[in-house]
Hints:
It is a single chain. By secondary structure, the chain is mainly α. The strands form two sheets. A two-stranded parallel ribbon has the order 1-4. A two-stranded antiparallel ribbon has the order 2-3. Mean pLDDT is 84; it is low at 427-436. The radius of gyration is 22 Å and the shape is globular. Helix content is 69%, strand content 2%. The chain has helices at 13-44, 49-56, 71-96, 103-128, 133-136, 147-157, 163-187, 194-199, 201-212, 218-235, 240-249, 263-287, 298-303, 305-333, 343-352, 358-367, 373-413; strands at 6-7, 59-60, 69-70, 336-337.
Amino acid sequence: MGWPESLLGRGSWPEVRRIGDILRAETVGGVLLVAAAAVALIWANSPWSDVYRELSGLRVGPSALHLDLTLAQWASDGLLAIFFFVAGLELKREFVAGDLRDPRRAMLPVAAAVGGMAVPALIYVAFNASAGSDALAGWAIPTATDIAFALAVLAIISTHLPAAMRTFLLTLAVVDDLLAIVIIAVFYTRSVEPLPLLLAVIPLGLFALLVQRRVRSWWLLLPLAAITWVLVHESGVHATVAGVLLGFTVPVIRRAEGPGPGLAEHFEHRFRPLSAGVAVPVFAFFAAGVSIAGAGGLGATLGDSVTLGIVFGLVAGKSMGVFGSTWLVQRFTHARLADGLNWWDVLGLALLGGIGFTVSLLIGELAFSAGSERDDHVKIGVLLGSLVAALLATIVLRVRNGHHRRMCAEEERDSDADGVPDVYQSGPPGRGASGP
Length: 436
């Protein structure tokens, strides 16, 4: 099997256009996420912090079903299931009908995602090797990338990052989410009740049967999805796993005789705004509210090996893992970066990968008891590491922004009346515009 001649080259125009629509939705969600986290952080350190804690700890739901959860738990167990449902849809679509169905094109983001998770985990373990097994429980916290937060940074700095780079970042984050949910299911499930887990197969199977028959009726599908979620939650496995499993059952390819998009694309269009605009920001609101004074003071927090492992894992580990994996793929396949790109672009993208938020905070809650001092240290470490990674990525990408602005202007001038840039109508994918 031959490898592509260039890495991070442009894909097909339909895929670029679809990815662009997704990124616009995620960018808006990222701005809402940042705003929600900022409000929570300010509120938790204000004279009204008790009100914030009481709101987070307010219990609602039927106790008979063990669903008398706090609002914070509903946000992490319930709303994030929607987030992972959309991630499951996107991952399946990418590898079934997207440009990444070609193993040669899938290799780079998958390798970068794996490297971008392995190196931060090793750095965290190095910082906490002598701190005991309790501290080591958080090894997976700095492994996640928050695509919404990263895209919000791109929107704020107004960079003209090429479409291929944005697509790479999105795909890396989606694979990252899949690996994260596997880690959650395997390493952060403390006990499993077999009966509820086996019973969850029944509504999941019925849901799969209906969607395979292209049934879209919400009054049939939503109750089955809810029952699946309840049973998975009751089993002891984190309930967000149900979201991914449900997403994987939805067919991607539409029937030949049917007009319009496939069912996976239809569901993604419906649920992505709910995920990016409601589920993730609400989770961020309840997860990011940490009292600096309550965490033992900023000095004590920054001196904790858990905090240091998270910060260095996100900033140094992510950039080393993503950049290093990309370089290794280039080295062993003898491919070259697409025209107009250089390794500074890859470094900027790798630094963006260090913006870990949603899944990092979720894993932190699973690794350490919610509301504990160490959990507060996790939140500060994630916030600080993400902020430093965002600032460094901003510096690198802004330096390259002038070059990419000129490239974008050239593509716009070359567009025909059909609105499709000429570079997508001639030549093999992967051949970018001319370099500087």
